[in-house]
Write a structure and sequence with these properties.
The protein has about 250 residues and is of the alpha/beta class. About 45% of the residues lie in helices and about 15% in strands. Strand 2, helix 2 and strand 3 form a beta-alpha-beta unit. Bound molecules: acetoacetyl-coenzyme A. Acetoacetyl-coenzyme A binds next to helix 5 and helix 7.
Length: about 250
């Protein structure tokens, strides 16, 4: 809720994924109208998702989008504007991995990842930024990764895109700072999501051994950071990169 007591309208891309779901719940708990935007899915998955989110305050809906496709993002922005009037909060959470050492990487592994993890930020922010600036309020939170800050063996594509995410954040933060729009990055470490559980078990055990807190992150740990940056009273925080990684940096 904001000062005028109207709920904010939020879009969360990758909204049905491991982190996205927790972020949707966090924003719902803050009383917002939340649009979980993700690749098209069947009615059953959509229903299971909305049933699983509990809130007595906000409202959740699901919209299909392919963030790698500019037209799909523009259409999503139009649909949400028509239905809910505006978009105040954008969380760019959609992301994929296509791991492989550079020597074995093919063009599709590289470019498909760039289209989702980096182009997706542009495709989603571009149709929404004007409205946010005109209304004098906006919160954009981009989800990066610890691997964008450290580099990761087998992830030249992912590390490059995730480092690029924060470059995008800082540039857009400067462009919109005087318009009431903040743009920030949250960089999760290794969380218990399908993406991380797909890493070979032996590699995962080595990763956990390097996390000072001694466990994988809970998606809620990341969602809390997003909620903090998306809040109305977070207007003096912009262009930052907030790591949520259980102290992983300290291992280096
Ligand atoms: N550091 C150093 N050397 C490594 C290494 C590492 N982390 N991993 C593998 N190597 C070495 C191997 O020992 C091997 O050495 P030799 O050739 O001397 O035997 C060589 O590299 C090749 O190893 P592989 O046979 O495993 O190579 P591969 O091409 O089959 O697979 C890989 C490489 C894709 C990196 C695979 O090991 C892998 O999938 N690793 C997991 C990658 C990972 O952690 N991804 C994170 C996903 S989660 C995420 O990204 C979310 C987030 O934001 C945090």
């Amino acid at each position: 809720m904001n000062a005028s007591n109207a709920p904010r309208v939020a879009i969360v891309t990758g909204g049905l994924g491991g982190l996205g779901r927790a972020i949707c719940q966090q924003l719902l708990d803050a009383g917002h109208q939340v649009v979980a935007a993700d690749l098209p899915c069947d009615e059953e998955r959509r229903r299971r998702f909305t049933d699983a989110l509990e809130s007595e305050r906000g409202e959740i809906s699901v919209e299909a989008v392919d963030v790698s496709d500019a037209a799909s993002c523009r259409q999503l922005a139009q649909r949400v504007h028509q239905r809910l009037g505006r978009v105040d909060i954008l969380v760019n959470g959609a992301g994929i991995t296509r791991d492989g050492t550079l020597r074995k990487m093919d063009d599709e592994q590289w470019s498909s990842l760039m289209r989702v993890n980096l182009d997706g930020l542009y495709h989603m922010s571009r149709p929404l930024i004007d409205g946010m600036c005109e209304r004098g309020f906006g919160r954009i939170v981009n989800i990066s990764s610890v691997n964008g800050q450290t580099g990761r063996f087998g992830q030249t594509n992912y590390s490059a895109a995730k480092a690029g995410v924060h470059g995008f954040t800082m540039a857009l933060a400067r462009e919109s700072a005087r318009k009431g729009v903040t743009v920030n990055t949250v960089s999760p470490g290794y969380c218990a999501t399908d993406m991380v559980m797909a890493v070979p078990e032996k590699v995962r055990e080595q990763i956990v051994a390097q996390i000072p807190v001694g466990r994988l992150g809970d998606p809620k740990d990341v969602a809390r950071a997003v909620g903090f940056l998306a809040a109305d009273d977070a207007g003096y925080l912009t262009g930052i990169n907030l790591p949520v990684n259980g102290g992983y940096f300290m291992s280096f």
